[in-house]
Fold each of these.
Amino acid sequence: MPLILDIAITHIAGRGRQTVVAVLGVAVGVGFSIAMAALMQGGQDDFVRQLVDTMPHVDITDDQRSARRQPAEDAFATVAISGLRPRDDRRGIINPTAATAWLESWIPGRFAASLKTQGVVRYSSREVGASIIGVDPQRELGVSPIVGKFIKGSFADLAAGGNNVLIGDTMANRLGAGLGDTITAVSSQGLTRNFKIGALFHTGTTARDEGEAYVLLKNAQIVSARPNAINEIRIKLDDPNRAPAVAKRAEAELGYKAVAWQEANESILQALVVRNVIMYTVVGAIMLVAGFGIYNIISTITHEKARDIAIMKSLGFPEADMRRLFLLEGMAIGAGGSAIGCVLGFAMIYALSMVRFQIAATGQEITHLPIAWSLLHYVIASAFALGSAAVAGYLPARRAARLNPVDIIRGAT
């Protein structure tokens, strides 16, 4: 084996320029593959992290997953019921005290009940459509996405006064209002109540900064004429991956629709899987192109060293050694390119991680490129490179092993 390795190194060194080009081709492919994988994986991880951080892991609402059974269906063997008039049912979650007590007994995390109603927020002659959300400040601290996102005031200001309201800075700008101003909330029932702006938050999400107003739960119940009612329970788990199991158990017990964050974003998560498939397909294509360079140089060496092959086989080297010789040459080029490519990939990732910029026009602020530092990316890119090198080296090696030394020495083609 050391003799075969020494011969392989001699063959590669004999074509220095072509070898360097082939190694650089593999290195560039590996480097760009690592950088692309780190950037795409970082973007995906950052996106999923934002989903997990900005939305409840389990959201229980007063909706039903399927239509309620009609009393007539229990009394008669009906096939279908037509002509039903919808009933204005605004009760929310029935018996909320018992529901929250049951959740408190086993939920591995935190939860908060709230009452959300649609309405209009007015100031001076301006008005903005908004979701008026009544919350319990103590419980809301554990689940709210706006905690820690305040640019003026804090979440604690909600409970500082009886009629305080927390709104986004975008809503405040549209209304022309500022901290300490008094705005009017009008519910869909036509009831109005004045609130003092206690704090301004900025989450970077336009829908939230422009369309949500947080008040005390009792104030939301008064404005919507729904005393002691709640219509949503938001749960934050210690382990977000347990959300489907928690949602299934809560829905089975309470009878209300409970949606895990995975279910709410199922189409997005499926799109991310498809994107990963595309990413690794592109990585494989890059390595395949690099493999053609390796195949070209090994084929050239095989052609030029035909007489050497004949002499070696005449001296007793078996076909297996011939295959092993040229396979080693391909693997050596692939390994050298992979090593240089890993260094190149690391340098590119580090350079990308230093890029700083800001985009706020779309509602999402990005101050740096999301990068995923993962050893797996280096392993996968190197594995693709070595696999391509092995295939590129094996094909000429198999042909070289089949050469007849007598025909070569006689000058046959």
Note: Residues 2-52+268-410 form one domain.
Amino acid sequence: MKVLMIFDHPYGAGASENTPHRRSFSAALSAAARRGLEKAGHEVDLIDLHADGFDPVMHESDLAAWRQSSVIDERVADYQARLRAADHAVFVFPIWWESMPASTKGFLDRVMTKGIVYSESKPGRPFINGLKNLRGVTLITVMTTPDFIYRWLFGNPITKILFRGTFRKIGVKNLRWLNHTNPAGKTLEQRERILQGIEERFAAL
């Protein structure tokens, strides 16, 4: 199976080691998931949005092209090709202000192009999925907000945006969310157990 990982953190996917002021638990989770996938023999394609210098802004020229079902940014076109080739997609990022960081939102805005990634039969009708190979999406997040507050008080905004409002809307139904709260408040041993669990989970994907 070909798995596309979309990683979003300013430190980059390489910041997975426990180095003070240069460490990211999101990166550690991404590395653990990748180890599990590769252990199971899956092909992993990593998009590191910050390392790529991805511009999340939908500029005037981009929007004009988007309305014509085309893209003018070569990096966006490359991301689309890699997404269309994937059997499974994994998004990894921290939750900031109860949502995704700007680069992931820009990925949705710019890469999910109408007429390429999905299409509409008629206005108001269900979208037609252009990602024919994609069988599922897994979301891995890190946040400081307590899980029960995020789910019951805030109403799970991240799954409403990424799952209900994006992938489910275009017809991808196998959607999983793996959330990890307050890693800074956990011991090293607790964090290592979480990472081992992620590795084992993705080895069984």
Note: The mean pLDDT is 93.
